[in-house]
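Quick note —
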Amino acid sequence: MSSSTPDPPSPKNLRFADVGINLTSPMYQGIYYEKKQHEEDLDDVVARAREVGCVKMMVTASDLEEARKVVDVCVRFRGHIHTYTTAGVHPCSTTEVDRHPAGPTAYLTALADLAQQTTLAGQTIAFGELGLDYDRLHFSPKETQQKYFTAQLQIATSLNPPLPLFLHSRSAAADFEALLTPHLPLLPRGGLVHSFTGTIPEMQRLIALGLHIGLNGCSLKTPLSVEVVRELPLSHLQIETDGPWCEIRPSHAGWGYLSSAPIMPHAVRKEKWVKGCMVKGRNEPRAILQVAYAVAGIKGIPVEEVCEAAWKNSVGMFGLGVAEEGK
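Predicted structure written out below.
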């Protein structure tokens, strides 16, 4: 497929940018819990996304090694889909900084250098994933997460040109806001708090800071989550899948708002994988269609309105190559 391949028509001619997708996950290589279950099907995953109008993706990185890998993935799919990257250390991966053979300073310097180089190369369009996650302290203690959240914010303020942030916050709202807020005046492009699972007051405080809110299946789990989505202004909304995780499940409160959504392709268990089929329990970018329909159903507005607002907001914050395309 050449770089001139036109984007395919999608249901209702919708267009999507999946601004949070983990294409380097072993699950797209057919590996689950370190066990090979089937052959790699990443080409099929990307093709299914294009079929519904998901023509742009921001492939996220959770540590330095992955920040290098996502660049390779994006190069691989140039001409198939418009892919871009992030560079940063997920809060659950921050212990890796302390364990680096050359020490934390060398790790952070390498991260800053990579972010700067790949930004100038037009590959990296956001700094992150960075933040705090107090739900999973078994991966990294609070003190370590806080130390490297602050250190990465300092890196972000040093980048030229500046990048928007790709942020993560779980059960850590007060500390997250306290550490982030002093740096925001030096980060003119703001950021996205992705995979949002917080409360209405937390969402409102983040919006007041000029941040956007990213929604996926994890944002639609409970009745409270549904109310957050209902109250979230379209002006600050972006949508994502966070695949291979965060699918919308039948047990989620948001599932009840999918009655008008197109039927998803057939999915099979990973042990019964067949080429061309989705995998049960493994989320993928095509499912961004479901996220859009769920949000539209919750808000009681046409899905086209949700999609265009999310597209406009994502392009406005991250660029996503639209200016270069003349669109």
